[in-house]
């Protein structure tokens, strides 16, 4: 399996605190069946994790994995919080952050927690016109998506993807988040699945999430989501 959203790089955001915790997360992930992880530190008003910095930190942690015989391949990425349309356009055009995958075809685009950006549909269209698919992380955790499900419907219909977090399926992010995640599964609006792991307590569990989706929507749906996640790191369009 591949985890496309994980805060495993230590000391650069609210994820792993140190190398020991990064290694512990990786060992847990490997035991769970994960063999690829996209490291996605935050890029927001609190953390300025630039492209070169994340690439360097990813290479350092990969070396530590290799030295400790942890058979996981790391890929650099980023969770980009939408500050404004103008800021995002500049960040994309100046290649300021790590996209997901090798060919800058996917971006993990997080909404603000305080409010929904009404320019998001325009932003999605702008990205798609440039061959970039926006992946909306954990929509089930955002109150405005739960209260106004037509917002996520509009983005999905335009071509954006969603990424539901396994913790939400386990009920760890509130009953409301679980209920909306179930709604997204029923609507076939779960495009990708990830752990959004931050530490060994909020750990990188992925297999149980695929089991959950398989139970609710069938094995074929779970396999489709897994294949789509692998497609993110492929050099071929998904």
UniProtKB/TrEMBL annotation:
<dbReference type="GO" id="GO:0030145">
    <property type="term" value="F:manganese ion binding"/>
</dbReference>
<dbReference type="GO" id="GO:0004725">
    <property type="term" value="F:protein tyrosine phosphatase activity"/>
</dbReference>
<comment type="similarity">
    <text>Belongs to the metallo-dependent hydrolases superfamily. CpsB/CapC family.</text>
</comment>
<dbReference type="InterPro" id="IPR016195">
    <property type="entry name" value="Pol/histidinol_Pase-like"/>
</dbReference>
<keyword id="KW-0378">Hydrolase</keyword>
<protein>
    <recommendedName>
        <fullName>Tyrosine-protein phosphatase</fullName>
        <ecNumber>3.1.3.48</ecNumber>
    </recommendedName>
</protein>
<dbReference type="InterPro" id="IPR016667">
    <property type="entry name" value="Caps_polysacc_synth_CpsB/CapC"/>
</dbReference>
<keyword id="KW-0904">Protein phosphatase</keyword>
<dbReference type="Pfam" id="PF19567">
    <property type="entry name" value="CpsB_CapC"/>
</dbReference>
